[in-house]
Amino acid sequence: MTFRNLAVAATGMAFLAISAFAQITTIEGIVKGPDGNPVQGAEVHITRTDIKGNYKTKTDKKGHYLYMGLPMGMYNVEVWVNGKLTGQPQNKVRTTPGDPIPVNFDLHADQAEAQAKQAAMQKAAETGQLTDDVKRGMSKEQIAAMEKQIKEQSEKLKKNKELNDAFNEGMTALQAKQYDAAIAGFQKAAAIDPNQLAVWTNLADAYMKNAEGKTGPAFDENVNKGLETYGKAVAMKPDDAGLHNNYALALAKAKKFEETQAELKKAADLDPANGGKYYYNLGALLVNSGQTGPAAEAFKKAIELTPTYADAYYQYGVSLVGQAKIDPATGKVTPVPGTVEAFQKYLELQPNGQWAQPSKDMLTSLGGSIETNFTDPNAKKAPAKKKK
Fold first, then answer.
1. Which long-range contacts (CB under 8 A, 24 or more apart) does 293-298 make?
2. Pick the CATH number of 3-112 from 3.90.580.10, 3.90.1150.10, 3.40.1190.10, 2.60.40.10
3. Per-residue model confidence (pLDDT) at position 291
4. Among the listed residues 48, 103, 95, 52, the one whose alpha carbon sits nearest the alpha carbon of residue 79
5. pTM for the complete prediction?
6. Stretch 291-302: mean pLDDT
7. Planar angle of CA 175, 181, 183, nearest 5 degrees
8. How far apart are CA 216 and CA 220, in angstroms?
9. How confident is the model at residue 87 (pLDDT cuts 50, 70, 90)?
10. Beta 43-48 vs 53-58: how paired, if at all?
11. How far is CA 340 from CA 160, 311, 375, in A?
């Protein structure tokens, strides 16, 4: 090979090397957090879109990242912080030979932009109008999708307003004891959105309250609708102890005591700490309705679940008093077993409680002993004397 041919060949090799080197490009940038400070350790994902290619790098303590050796092409660039996509991705970044292509991320500005966009979207949903500012920079497809979203959001807002208006109408009437109007308001709300638990629970309460003072078919109709409505509410949230308790109290008003016990057991199983309270409330309801026998059983169950429930002991004792036997010849009262012990236990737990004096009076009338040196279990104890 002559020197001339060798020179030509060498020139060709140099041209190829330069051409190959010219295809390698670089992307770099700064990542700032929502507080405006550099983000260290943020992952920068660089994804090639014209052909398959994925690259990753991380920011240094100054929030700077640099990725060299990228083939020339089109890329999407994302920032991930703590495993989550953060900020607005930079799409359609075309690299070129020469200086690095700057792709910066200001998460504070992105956050502000997102908030402004959300506010604009909210306003658009309320007015049904997509402003030119929001449309700017969007494609026809994006605008069409946005207009569809705004329409759906606008319809949702309208539905929510109608729902809230109907619910508030029902609540206002319920608080004013206008139960027919309350029922109408909650029924309207349920028709708008049948998946609102608060609507069904308050509707059930309105039915049960509307039954009070009524007799015959009017009473039965309201109670049956109340129980049916409570059933729907419980089905929506079967793990709510309070719902089972309220359903049980409604069943007790209908004198469905077996079902009442079943619902109270569910409430107590779901919320053991308040199991005594549920049965105590049942006992109080039964007393008010003249069901002294079932009331005694309810108070007894409350004591079993919460052995320190002082008021339950007193009410249990009162409910047992009605079962005492009186000798017609002597007038002597013989209480059933457990009566005296119930009042004594109350005084032990609450020596200065609201039922302390009535408990003493009951014990006196029943011939039971009254302990006179009960101490307040909540009182502070005097410090022990030091030994000499």
1. 294/257, 295/319, 296/320, 296/323
2. 2.60.40.10
3. 83
4. 103
5. 0.52
6. 89
7. 90
8. 6
9. confident
10. antiparallel
11. 58, 15, 19
What token pair was written down for 177? 């004891």
Q: pLDDT, tens digit, for every residue of 161-203?
A: 999 999 999 999 999 999 999 999 999 999 999 999 999 999 9
Whole-number Å distance between alpha carbons of 41 and 51? 28
DSSP notation for 145-206: HHHHHHHHHHHHHHHHHHHHHHHHHHHHHHHTT-HHHHHHHHHHHHHH-TT-HHHHHHHHHH
Q: What share of the chain is helix, strand, coil (3-state, %, to 5)?
A: 55, 15, 30
Give me the amino acid identity at 90.
Q
Radius of gyration of the chain (CA): 39
Contact 344, 363 (CB under 8 A): yes
Pairing state of beta strands 325-326 and 333-334? Answer: antiparallel
**How many residues in the chain?**
388
Per domain, the residue ranges of the chain are 3-112, 308-377
Residues 6+ apart with CB under 8 A from 95: 25, 26, 27, 70, 72, 73, 75, 101
Handedness of CA 194, 180, 174, 242 (dihedral sign): negative
Among 340, 251, 345, CA closest to 302: 345
- Degrees to nearest 5, angle at CA 157 with 186 and 130: 170
Averaged over 197-220, what is the pLDDT?
94
Backbone angles phi, psi at 293, to 5 degrees: -65, -55
- Joined tokens for residue 260: 């009442």
Which pair of structure tokens corresponds to residue 54? 């994925």
